[in-house]
Amino acid sequence: MNADRIIRWFLWVYLIVVFGFVFMPIITSVIFSFNSDRFPTIPLGSFTLKWYQTVLNDPGFWDAAGTSLIVSVCSGVLATLIGFCTAYTDFRYHFRFKGAYIALALLPPTIPLIILALAMLAWLSRLNASGQVWSIIIAHTVLCAPFAMGVIRLRLQQMDPDLESAAWNLGASEWDAMRSVVLPFARPALVSAFCLTMAVSFDEFTVAWFVSGLNKTIPVAILEVLQGTVDPQINAIGSFVFLTSITLVIVAQLIFITRSNRSKLQ
Q1: What's the pTM value of the predicted model, to 2 decimals?
Q2: How far apart are CA 93 and CA 264, in angstroms?
Q3: For residue 260, is pLDDT > 70?
Q4: What structural domains and CATH numbers belong to the chain?
């Protein structure tokens, strides 16, 4: 066995171990969501869908799911729009303190969530806006916009900067060049950024818990179920949240990679 094969096998084993370490708790939770026993013990009881039926028959779950859907979609749209504007500014223009501009745009995810949540609560309270659905949307947009910017910025860096100038020289206005050149090229990143920011917003708990008031998102509803009791419904809800989030992330990655590879072949 040559050295390259040994290294290849080592990398495969390492990859399996890492993915197993990350996903095993989630897989375990999904398995226990079909367990008839109330407590997650081994050996498992019989197979059941009782916990899913309990969740689906709970009006509170549907209210939280509706709130999470509204918040994640609106936050995704706004974060993608802001992320595109920020990334395009970085791509097209050169100005003084540009490094500080990029650092400031990427700042929110580097702040501890508890600090960001307290700051958003204090700011929204001064505006008499805390406890509203759109308060969560504002807070999640601030948190998610840097993720969108990172994805779109990566895509725009692959674009020939002379394409837009060529469109101008051919008589296109700045808006026409944006619509016919920049946006089509950036479309895979825009869709990917939207899916990614939706997933981040859908999963986010700390900020939503501080600013949501009575408008509970699914992560906040999970905390309320967990307080003071061990409820198997959590495994069922967690499986739903995981399936939704992982689907959005996979779709984002597939769209970005597929469209980027297709652009390189053209």
Answers
A1: 0.79
A2: 25
A3: no
A4: 49-265 (1.10.3720.10)
